[in-house]
Amino acid sequence: MNFMNDTIAAISTPTGLGAISIVRLSGDNAIEAVMEHFKGTDLNQVPTHTINYGHICDADEVIDEVMVTIMRAPKTYTKEDIVEINCHGGPYVTQKVLSTILGSKVRMAEPGEFTKRAFLNGRIDLTEAEAVMDLINSKTTLQENAAVEMVDGAFSRMIKDLREQMIQVIANAEVNIDYPEYDEEELTRQKMQKTTESVLNQLQEVIDYSEHGQVLKSGIKTAIIGAPNVGKSSLLNMLYRGNRAIVTSIPGTTRDTLEEEITIGQLVLDLIDTAGIHHTDDLIEKLGIEKSHQMITRADLVLLVLDGSRQLSAEEVQLINDTKDKQRIVIINKTDLPQKIDLSQTNLAQEEILKISALNGIGFKELKEQIESMFLAGIENSNGEVLLANARQLGLLNKTQEALQSVLTGLADDVPLDLVLIDFNEAWKSLGEIIGENAPDELVNELFSRFCLGK
Ligand code: GDP
Ligand code: ZN
């Protein structure tokens, strides 16, 4: 029995008290192994992709009443025979169904092994497999949408399309190198240059919105800064109130840092150092101007809070100035009170300013929209898809880009075609690695080991 065809099984629904849980098997022995413990129709005889009623038994003992889905290779998730046993008896019974099925013909699946088989059997490529994992781990609808589009293969279609353009140039160049007497080298060089430039452009687009998108995956590091009593805590409370839930509250590295995540619309804000805001009312006084500078440096987004009922202090003018190169929103709070603030001495643009009353929850919707327009713009491609390359894919995109840059340099410097072709081939290979072509075993193993059991 070879490795690929041994039969694996796992519970593939989340643990907990769901109404139905599924034990999934994949491999040559899947049907036979279930049949040994199944009382009902002869599963060897039923057509593929059918659901069959019966009981799972251990010798004479009935363990659970089940519905068994039979899916024969190759039109299945793994391209192998798959059996899914829908159990009704709760977690304990499901566990018992699984242990009854496991035996000489079936072993326990490793984490991610079903998806790994789908990949190794050519059913999905590496970007799609990675997206399955992202989907399992996604926290917001945006992440979910991005993952769905990756699972759906939009990203790998784009990569494959770029490679298709490139392979034609490679074929041409190889003919020219093998038969120099054809003397069409100049044409090939031109074609190579055109293709390289066009691929580079498209790569740059993906790289740009993926880098932009990393922020969305990991959370937008957000600093709420401002003088004492302007309403930072009140703003924080407004953000909490306006939202479904605080996702996590994790102790930071030092005693007095606390990083909190909140979901705002489609985005996750990772609030930097809210300890100062929660526990004292004098962030700047207590922690010092130095501290707020550290926060500004680390932040992807600065929410600078000012009190509309007071005049600007010199420190606040300084803060406005210090944050001018950041993605920021200058929030004028306490707009319910008579207004004394005068911003004419600053160079603030109208669209950077947002008026709110944190105490009364006024302006939350506008704040949310402004943050969304700052961070969601530019992550959709021309087809309206959100394709976020992960760190591994980005690394390879950058590598491809470098190789293509040297192709352009080579062509400009009249380097012989066979040498330029080396770089061009290199670029073609890196793009292939993104979708898992010639992916080294260690990479594949490492990747799938991060999956959860049963996927
Ligand atoms: P922080 O020191 O910047 O965190 O400011 P706080 O959120 O603790 O608010 C300072 C004071 O301003 C408190 O008494 C709040 O009730 C009050 N405050 C905050 N937001 C508003 C607002 O929108 N309108 C009014 N009238 N008072 C506010
Ligand atoms: Zn406060």
From TrEMBL:
<dbReference type="InterPro" id="IPR027368">
    <property type="entry name" value="MnmE_dom2"/>
</dbReference>
<dbReference type="GO" id="GO:0005829">
    <property type="term" value="C:cytosol"/>
</dbReference>
<keyword id="KW-0963">Cytoplasm</keyword>
<keyword id="KW-0378">Hydrolase</keyword>
<keyword id="KW-0460">Magnesium</keyword>
<feature type="binding site">
    <location>
        <position position="254"/>
    </location>
    <ligand>
        <name>Mg(2+)</name>
    </ligand>
</feature>
<dbReference type="GO" id="GO:0046872">
    <property type="term" value="F:metal ion binding"/>
</dbReference>
<dbReference type="InterPro" id="IPR006073">
    <property type="entry name" value="GTP-bd"/>
</dbReference>
<dbReference type="GO" id="GO:0003924">
    <property type="term" value="F:GTPase activity"/>
</dbReference>
<dbReference type="InterPro" id="IPR031168">
    <property type="entry name" value="G_TrmE"/>
</dbReference>
<feature type="binding site">
    <location>
        <position position="455"/>
    </location>
    <ligand>
        <name>(6S)-5-formyl-5,6,7,8-tetrahydrofolate</name>
    </ligand>
</feature>
<protein>
    <recommendedName>
        <fullName>tRNA modification GTPase MnmE</fullName>
        <ecNumber>3.6.-.-</ecNumber>
    </recommendedName>
</protein>
<dbReference type="InterPro" id="IPR018948">
    <property type="entry name" value="GTP-bd_TrmE_N"/>
</dbReference>
<dbReference type="Pfam" id="PF01926">
    <property type="entry name" value="MMR_HSR1"/>
</dbReference>
<dbReference type="GO" id="GO:0005525">
    <property type="term" value="F:GTP binding"/>
</dbReference>
<feature type="binding site">
    <location>
        <position position="233"/>
    </location>
    <ligand>
        <name>Mg(2+)</name>
    </ligand>
</feature>
<feature type="binding site">
    <location>
        <position position="24"/>
    </location>
    <ligand>
        <name>(6S)-5-formyl-5,6,7,8-tetrahydrofolate</name>
    </ligand>
</feature>
<feature type="binding site">
    <location>
        <position position="84"/>
    </location>
    <ligand>
        <name>(6S)-5-formyl-5,6,7,8-tetrahydrofolate</name>
    </ligand>
</feature>
<feature type="binding site">
    <location>
        <position position="250"/>
    </location>
    <ligand>
        <name>K(+)</name>
    </ligand>
</feature>
<dbReference type="InterPro" id="IPR005225">
    <property type="entry name" value="Small_GTP-bd"/>
</dbReference>
<keyword id="KW-0479">Metal-binding</keyword>
<dbReference type="GO" id="GO:0002098">
    <property type="term" value="P:tRNA wobble uridine modification"/>
</dbReference>
<comment type="similarity">
    <text>Belongs to the TRAFAC class TrmE-Era-EngA-EngB-Septin-like GTPase superfamily. TrmE GTPase family.</text>
</comment>
<dbReference type="InterPro" id="IPR027266">
    <property type="entry name" value="TrmE/GcvT-like"/>
</dbReference>
<keyword id="KW-0342">GTP-binding</keyword>
<keyword id="KW-0547">Nucleotide-binding</keyword>
<dbReference type="GO" id="GO:0042802">
    <property type="term" value="F:identical protein binding"/>
</dbReference>
<feature type="binding site">
    <location>
        <position position="229"/>
    </location>
    <ligand>
        <name>K(+)</name>
    </ligand>
</feature>
<dbReference type="InterPro" id="IPR027417">
    <property type="entry name" value="P-loop_NTPase"/>
</dbReference>
<keyword id="KW-0819">tRNA processing</keyword>
<comment type="subunit">
    <text>Homodimer. Heterotetramer of two MnmE and two MnmG subunits.</text>
</comment>
<feature type="binding site">
    <location>
        <begin position="229"/>
        <end position="234"/>
    </location>
    <ligand>
        <name>GTP</name>
    </ligand>
</feature>
<feature type="binding site">
    <location>
        <begin position="248"/>
        <end position="254"/>
    </location>
    <ligand>
        <name>GTP</name>
    </ligand>
</feature>
<feature type="domain" description="TrmE-type G">
    <location>
        <begin position="219"/>
        <end position="376"/>
    </location>
</feature>
<dbReference type="InterPro" id="IPR025867">
    <property type="entry name" value="MnmE_helical"/>
</dbReference>
<dbReference type="GO" id="GO:0030488">
    <property type="term" value="P:tRNA methylation"/>
</dbReference>
<keyword id="KW-0630">Potassium</keyword>
<comment type="function">
    <text>Exhibits a very high intrinsic GTPase hydrolysis rate. Involved in the addition of a carboxymethylaminomethyl (cmnm) group at the wobble position (U34) of certain tRNAs, forming tRNA-cmnm(5)s(2)U34.</text>
</comment>
<feature type="binding site">
    <location>
        <position position="123"/>
    </location>
    <ligand>
        <name>(6S)-5-formyl-5,6,7,8-tetrahydrofolate</name>
    </ligand>
</feature>
<feature type="binding site">
    <location>
        <position position="248"/>
    </location>
    <ligand>
        <name>K(+)</name>
    </ligand>
</feature>
<feature type="binding site">
    <location>
        <begin position="273"/>
        <end position="276"/>
    </location>
    <ligand>
        <name>GTP</name>
    </ligand>
</feature>
<dbReference type="InterPro" id="IPR004520">
    <property type="entry name" value="GTPase_MnmE"/>
</dbReference>
